[in-house]
Amino acid sequence: MPLQRTTLPSSNRRRLFRHSAANSPAAALMSPESTATALNLRRILGAALLFFLVSLSCVLLFRNAYYSVFVSSNPLSRFTTVFPPNDSAAVTNEYSLENILSEAAMQDRTVILTTLNEAWAAPNSIIDLFLESFRIGDHTRRLLNHLVIIALDQKAFIRCQAIHTYCYLLVSEATDFHEEAYFMTPSYLKMMWRRIDFLRSVLEMGYNFVFTDADIMWFRDPFPRFHRDADFQIACDHFTGSFDDVQNRPNGGFNFVKSNNRSIEFYKFWYSSRETYPGYHDQDVLNFIKVDPFITDLGLRMKFLDTANFGGLCEPSRDLNKVCTMHANCCYGMDSKLHDLRIMLQDWKYYLTLSPSLKRLSIISWRVPQNCRLTIYTLHSNILFFFLLVHFIYPY
Length: 396
Hints:
Protein name: Nucleotide-diphospho-sugar transferase domain-containing protein
Domain Nucleotide-diphospho-sugar transferase: 143-341
CATH topology of the domain at 97-361: Spore Coat Polysaccharide Biosynthesis Protein SpsA, Chain A
Oligomer: single chain
Keywords: Membrane, Transmembrane, Transmembrane helix
Strand content: 5-15%
Organism: Glycine soja
Pfam families: Nucleotid_trans (PF03407)
């Protein structure tokens, strides 16, 4: 039970403390050296308390920021109402997935896939910036002919049909995509694993795919930068410098997978590993299984993509002459994500206006991250609060 504190005014509390201390037997026996020692001890205790409280504040601050990455900015983290209600007949797919993939596929049966929910489908939101990057990128506009948007709810499907050619509504009897699905809740995990299972089905249909999150800007055709001999290649939050190093930190938001027996069995193994590692989402599980002997036995050729070409806000691609894609990862909050993505597009447009000689000099780089980083305003406020608290407890 917490200690009860009096509610005397601070001035009375101080007078009472000084009066008691001055008239106590202990005070009469204390030497000046003892008094100084006591004051130093109080200051040390106060500093220790301040350090503890500030440390606790930092832990809580970063924990909440980490949580907000997914609650506020992950495409599968939640579904907020951004469209007016529509009680008309249920929207359904006019064409089968096979027909859509067949129509959108390149000659080698490769398609580009992304997922879209209601929040990211809002006008002037993520999906609009995503499509704009294809239109202004270097040899990327034609790739829109091979892009299939997988809508995770009916309102996202309606918006997709208004702005793009190939749309498919992914429905699941096991998961209600209209419910809120916060990061690491059972609904969230079901959706993430549903995506892995869906991609496995695309491979089984005989299609290669590039999967891309919609908060990835496509500035240059990435296909020349892919490894020809890889079955599965994936972008990284951090790239160690080696394409084969399993210590790379992969990011599931961008990968290129070829359809063959090895990749199909790998996706089956990845999906089944959710039971081996319950409570983890697909990217965490990938980090566990990437070193599993089964991968070696399977003969899967796995490669990690260089952030110099496939960058992100975690580790930006510094040279605009090399960049293919840029991901708004390591970003907290939808507003911050949108702000920095727009700055990213502006930087690319400015780069395009430069002469070839100036481009070769690499005189410009990204102006991001800006809002996509943890501000220290809250931390400063918490530190100030704790200074005041300590001063109140130890009014010396």
